[in-house]
Every structure is written in structure tokens, then in C-alpha cells.
Design brief:
303 residues, 9 helices, rod-shaped
Length: 303
């Protein structure tokens, strides 16, 4: 009878083992019914069925097969010779790889009788279905994690606005003295504000207030700050030509767990600093001087 296998070789180790002596007449690789009735053939069948009952072979199982084959190397069974040629190439005392264990499993399928082989194949395919499902779930989890990481660094809201309320409480003095394009500013809720439930103050690094976020933008920003979201804001430019210079601010609000650079929580906002008496007097003097200049200019123009 010519040497043959029920499965086409699909690994280098199996192909090499199957090719050995291919020009000579060989007996079949799979265990025959008579070989499995007793002795070493029955032992090998029981061992192979035990190793494949879970649909995959463990590292310990591969080494167990190797030990059995070494102990029964002289057995007059083509299946022993075939398995030995495969196992000796890939199973050592060290840990085997998953791919190597799959090769051993396929070699075991090759030597099993038809009914036992069909069972082993069914077990293997069932495991493959589970593994594919797990691999798909792992890929989806990785994608989801990547999406969450991207979202974590992206702003939940952004606004570009002219600061409101710059003409009150002498703020124009501080704006002229302390505010310039590129400066970092801070957003902080004014929860006691009697004019707006959404009031968000604009505060400088030195603690002085320049005004508020306009109501149209505060409606979106205030609830996010109330939830503990982080923020980052800076002055893009200062508009002149008005009663008071008006800072234009670009603001971003991020998730509370964001790793966005320079984003800060409310607790990191500088403590509010109010101008002392001297500051108020200075602001009043400047305002009166401006009024006087306007009056003089108007008189000269009328003349």
C-alpha cells in the first residue's frame, strides 16, 4: 500500500515528514483499526484523543507527546515515526509557540483514525471560532480605546468671543496695563451672580477680573465647568478704539480626565484679586482724564 495522509500537509514540519521517502512505497500514516485494539497503538490513540479533546494542545501536552514518542521510538507503527519526525523539530524542553502547537495538533489529526480525526477536527474548528471571536473583540476594544484616547484630548466645546463687561468696576485699567495678545486667561464660574445663572468670569494670571464670557457662549460652557471639566483659554488680540479695550479670547473646555496640554481644573484658577483703594482712585483719575480729553476735543472741534 502507498504511503498517504488524509490531510494535505500545511506546515514545513509536516511537509518535510510527509516528503521523506516519498519515492518509496509507504504504509498509511493513520492508525488502523487493528493497531488501535491493543498495545502501543491503543496507547497512542488514547493519548492523542486526550490531547485534542479541548480543540488545542497545550505546551505541557506537546511535551507529554514528545516523551511518549521517545519512550516508544522502536514501535512498529508508521504513525509513531511520522509524529516523531514532526515533534522533534519543534518540541523541546523550552516553551513552544502557539503556531508550533497548532502544527503538532494537525500532525495528531493526520494519524488518528477517521472517526477520531473528525472529532479532533470539530474540536479544533470550535476553538478557532472562539479565537476568531476573541481576536475580533480584542481589535474592537483596541479601536474603542483609541477612539476614547482621541476624544479625551479633544475639546467638548470651544468659543471665540469678545469679553463682556469690560467697562465695569474699572476693568479697563487692568486690561490696558496687564492684557496683551497671547496671554493665558482663566474661566471660573460666578455662581452667586444675580444677573445670570450661567455667569463665567474671565480672570488673569494675577487674579484680576477682566469681564465675563458672553451669555450666548456661557450657556454652553457653564454646565461643563459645573461638571468639573477642564479648560484652557488665551487672549488672541485686544480690540482698541472703544471706551475700553476689549480682549478677544479663545477658550476650550475638555473632559475632566483629559490630558490636553495646559488644560486646568477650576481649583487651579488664581484666587480673585480685587483692586485696593489706591487702585480705585487711579482708575477714577484715568477715567476723569479721558472724559476731560473728550470734552476738550469736542470744544475745539466746535470752534
Amino acid at each position: 500500500m502507498r504511503y498517504y495522509s488524509q490531510h494535505a500537509p500545511d506546515s514545513p514540519a509536516i511537509r518535510e515528514a510527509s516528503a521523506t521517502g516519498s519515492n518509496a512505497n509507504k504504509t498509511r500514516l493513520s492508525l488502523t483499526k487493528s493497531q488501535t485494539q491493543a498495545g502501543e497503538g491503543a496507547e497512542l490513540l488514547a493519548l492523542c484523543q486526550s490531547l485534542t479533546e479541548n480543540g488545542s494542545i497545550s505546551d505541557a501536552g506537546a511535551r507529554e507527546l514528545r516523551r511518549w514518542l521517545l519512550e516508544h521510538r522502536s514501535a512498529d507503527l508508521p504513525s509513531v515515526e511520522f509524529l516523531t519526525s514532526v515533534v522533534e523539530q519543534i518540541v523541546t524542553d523550552s516553551v513552544t509557540t502557539p503556531e508550533q502547537r497548532k502544527t503538532v495538533y494537525k500532525a495528531i489529526e493526520t494519524v488518528l483514525p477517521r472517526e477520531a480525526r473528525e472529532t479532533a477536527v470539530a474540536h479544533r474548528k470550535a476553538v478557532q471560532v472562539v479565537e476568531r471571536g476573541q481576536a475580533h473583540a480584542a481589535r474592537e476594544a483596541e479601536k474603542q480605546h483609541a477612539r476614547e484616547e482621541r476624544e479625551r484630548s479633544q475639546p467638548l466645546a470651544s468659543a471665540n468671543f469678545m469679553v463682556a463687561g469690560v467697562n465695569h468696576e474699572g476693568r479697563s485699567v487692568f486690561i490696558r496695563e496687564y492684557v496683551k495678545a497671547g496671554d493665558k486667561v482663566f474661566l471660573i464660574r460666578d455662581r452667586q451672580n444675580k444677573f445670570s445663572h450661567n455667569a463665567v468670569e474671565i480672570r488673569l494670571q494675577n487674579g484680576y477680573q477682566t469681564g465675563f464670557v458672553p451669555e450666548d457662549d456661557a450657556v454652553e460652557i457653564a454646565p461643563l465647568l459645573d461638571k468639573g471639566c477642564l479648560h484652557h483659554a488665551h487672549v488672541t488680540k485686544v480690540l482698541e478704539g472703544h471706551r475700553s479695550p476689549i480682549p478677544v479670547v479663545q477658550a476650550y473646555v475638555y473632559r475632566s480626565d483629559s490630558d490636553a496640554k495646559e488644560a486646568v481644573p477650576e481649583r487651579a484658577v488664581p484666587q480673585k484679586r480685587t483692586p485696593g483703594h489706591a487702585g480705585c482712585v487711579a482708575a477714577l483719575v484715568i477715567i476723569l482724564a479721558l472724559v476731560l480729553l473728550l470734552v476738550v476735543a469736542a470744544i475745539r472741534f466746535s470752534i
